[in-house]
Amino acid sequence: MFDLDLQIERRNELLDSFKGNKIVGIHSAIEELINTHPEKPEGAKFEQFKLVQHFNALMGIMTLNSHFEYAYVNNMEMRRGFLTNGGVFKVNKNGSDITIEDCYSMTEIDKLSSERFFKLKETVSPDNGWYFWPGCGMKIPSNFKIVLDPDVSKTRLVAILDEDPSQQIIIDEKNDIVGFSVIGDHELYNAKSKIPKGLSSINPNDFEIVDGFHELNLLLNKNAGNYTCSLHVPYASPKFDVRTTTVIEDREKGDNTLIASTT
Q1: How many domains does the chain have?
Q2: Separation of alpha carbons 171 and 153, rounded Å
Q3: Which range marks the domain in which residue 104 is found?
Q4: Which of 94, 201, 250, 254 has its CA 20 to 30 A from that of 17?
């Protein structure tokens, strides 16, 4: 049974174990900056703003810390924990080889008995080689696969009918529209908005507004059969960036070199 008070209590105890840790400090600094900002957004927009900042910080941390990158790329439970409500892990490193010795998402920790959590808490600390990321705040169903995708700039949801993989729905989040692809003839979904078969783009202004956001209400049809859902999230490590340098030859005065790079 889900116990929110217990979850908060255990999360705070782990945060205490990592007090002074620089990586956890980045997470805490973002929380403090947003919580105390005089113009902070309210409600769902407030949570969304924190989510984006934590996600961007996590991408930067993985650039500087190969252990975090390894856990995020190679362990699905840690990937889910980092993106949602947090996770702790410990690695073994032999030269350039890294393996995960032990790891727990906060969801797993919440299910531990009091005795097992006490033993874990006594072990988990940066002094013992453990790492902790308190999570970005996403909400991801437990049966969704999480795919790291360098070809998306925001999120992509893919639903595939198990008995016929040619039947798919693909939803792409973009800056100003939602890309919607309905592939096949199966009635895999119900939606308040009339969405045509094939490829289409939907203006968010056509959606219902809920908590300050335009919300697409999509219901996967259970009568269509079993389906597999995957959430594709951007994976654009700054390690992969190409720095673009342009020198403008015909300028007589001023700065004539442009250096640009972004993730």
Answers
A1: 2
A2: 13
A3: 4-133
A4: 94
Take residue 146 and report the two structure tokens written for it.
Answer: 């999480």
What CA–CA distance (Å, rounded) separates 179 from 152? 12
Backbone angles phi, psi at 84, to 5 degrees: -105, -100
- Please say whether the beta carbons of 18 and 125 come within 8 A: yes
Query: Euclidean distance between the first and final Cα of the chain, in Å?
Result: 40
Dihedrals φ, ψ of 126, to 5°?
-60, -30
* Domain edge (last residue) among 98, 133, 168: 133
Give pLDDT tens digits for 195-241: 556 556 766 666 666 666 766 666 676 666 788 899 999 987 656 66
Dihedral of the alpha carbons of 136, 138, 143, 148, in degrees to the nearest 10? -60
Residues 78 and 124 in one domain: yes
Q: Cβ contacts of residue 160 below 8 Å, gap of 6+?
A: 167, 168, 227, 228, 229, 230
Separation of alpha carbons 64 and 48, rounded Å = 25
Report yes or no: 45 and 213 within 8 Å, Cβ to Cβ.
yes
Same structural domain, 119 and 199: no
What tokens does 70 get?
Answer: 């390894």
Q: Quick check: pTM over 0.90?
A: no
Asked whether residue 140 is domain-assigned, the answer is: no
For residue 7, give both structure tokens.
């979850």
Q: Which residues are 93's β-sheet partners?
A: 98
Same domain, 150 and 56: no
Check the CA dihedral 133-138-140-142 and report its sign.
Answer: positive
Looking at the structure, tell me whether residues 32 and 96 fall in a common domain. yes
77 occurs within a structural domain:
yes
